[in-house]
Amino acid sequence: MQTLMKHPGTAILFFFLLSLTTDIFAQKTDRVEIAGALQKAVEFHRAHLATEGGYLWKYSADLLKREGEGIADDKTVWVQPPGTPAIGSTLLRTYRITGDRYYLEAATDAGLCLGRGQLESGGWTYMIHFDPEQRAKYRYRVDGRKNGRNVSTLDDNTTQAALLFLMELDKALDFKNETIGESVRYGLEKLVEAQYPNGAFPQGFQGDKRNPSDYPILKASFPPEGAEPTREKDYWRFYTLNDNLARDVNRVFFAAADIYGTKNRNPKYVEAAEKLGDFLIAARLPDPQPAWAQQYDFGMRPCWARKFEPAAVTGGESQSVIDTLIELYRFSGKTKYLEPIPHAVEYLEKSRRPDGTVARFYEMRTNKPLYMTKQYELTYSDADVPTHYAFTVRLRSWPSVDEIKKTPDKPARSKVKDRGIARILASLDHRGAWITEGTLRSSPNKTSPIIDNAVFLKNVNTLLDALEE
């Protein structure tokens, strides 16, 4: 030490190298701790939460209660995110980053589970039952039944999330798992068949044969003045944009075009994606409300869906359509998908409420914000709206068309100094569970310790982000 003090330059170098060595050791220690936490968390999920390889949304900390969007038993799994496909995709990402085939095996279990829940119509409904009595109520493809529920849903990213995960899994397995591959091929074929002649999709499909003449290709228009908009019980058959449906469907086609192409993208899925984009262009409503509706009847007029979803111009889904058109431009390079955007953005900006948000619904022609009372009566007042549905939404901002053309598809991810890794690692309990305080549908007014798969997904992906840096 005295020698170092006599030579200040040497001392500085010594302490720099000591600091560097300490940092490297700390980083290695962090990576070892992260890897251990990932393994512990996944092992717990797989051993104690999984049913036939699939997952639900939430569990009581003592594992006695479980649920998806509704209360569930231990012989049911959920498809709708954050259920089985979301967990499976994260397991697959864990495998890609760590190289540990244990995670690929866990992801494959989830994929095989989804295969057993695929309907004869080609997609999925919100949940999969494994109890024989409940299972008999559905036309699961692998069971070969000719009766039972057979409506595949595109609502809430259900069928789309399942197909996206299964395609990525098929690729990770080098296309060698015939069961997974068959499920993907069948699902993609039925999804393409579900597309209407004008490029639109329904909220649900069951493989019915269609006469193209029943679905003329039209531009969107308002119902005649004084006429009641279409309002039918089976509204799910109509052209649907609700809950990001078009965006999520096209992401399936984008992935399928790349994964199942040879030297170039698979033209079948490119065509399907662009056809959906052409529908979005046609579905933009005329001035003075150049945006979109949640749902259109077969005459391409805004129509009712659920009792709290009136025929109207939407300030919510219109924003999702803008995102979808931007993604489609980046996928195809075709500028026609950008053309509707500036006028739509201008309309949305003019439709801001005093608090800066936009209404979910605007009355056709007058552009007055529309709301529902708790008794589900249409009103212009937001003083008594139901709490289960967002009747106002934040208005986001988008770059100009010129800026969109210059912006890379995937901007570089910036490093984050503090991701809360220490907190995530410390909060993992001795079993491998992240326990949070929350409510379950079985006790909606009572907060209790729960295991929430949304928290699991967030924590695991945060740990994986740290490993990737």
Describe the structure.
The chain has 469 residues and is an alpha+beta fold. 43% of the residues lie in helices and 11% in strands. It is built from 14 helices and 17 strands. The chain has a 5-stranded antiparallel β-sheet. Strands 10-12-13-14 form a 4-stranded antiparallel β-sheet, with no helix packed on it. α4 (101-117) packs across α6, α6 (158-172) runs antiparallel to α7 and α6 runs parallel beside α8 (245-259). Residues 17-26 have low confidence and may be disordered.
**Unreliable stretches, pLDDT < 50, 5 or more residues?**
17-26
Tell me the strand percentage band: 5-15%
User: Structural class given helices, strands, pairing?
Assistant: alpha+beta
Measured as a percent range, the helix fraction is 40-55%
Strand tally, please?
Answer: 17
Number of helices: 14
Widest beta sheet: strand line-up:
3-2-1-17-16
3D shape: globular
Q: If you compute it from the alpha carbons, what radius of gyration comes out, rounded to the nearest whole angstrom? A: 25 Å
User: What's the N-to-C terminus distance?
Assistant: 36 Å
The average pLDDT value, as a whole number, equals 93
**Largest sheet, strands/sense/barrel:** 5 strands, antiparallel
Give the key terms:
single chain, 469 residues, alpha+beta, four-stranded antiparallel beta sheet, 14 helices, 43% helix, globular
Layout of strands and helices, then pairs:
Layout: H1 2-6, H2 8-49, E1 58-60, E2 66-67, E3 71-72, E4 76-78, H3 84-98, H4 101-117, E5 127-129, H5 132-135, E6 152-153, H6 158-172, H7 178-193, E7 204-205, E8 239-240, H8 245-259, H9 267-283, E9 295-296, E10 313-314, H10 317-332, H11 341-350, E11 358-359, E12 361-362, E13 369-372, E14 378-379, E15 392-393, H12 401-406, H13 421-427, E16 435-440, E17 443-452, H14 453-468
Antiparallel strand pairs: 1-2, 1-17, 2-3, 4-5, 6-7, 8-9, 10-12, 11-15, 12-13, 13-14, 16-17
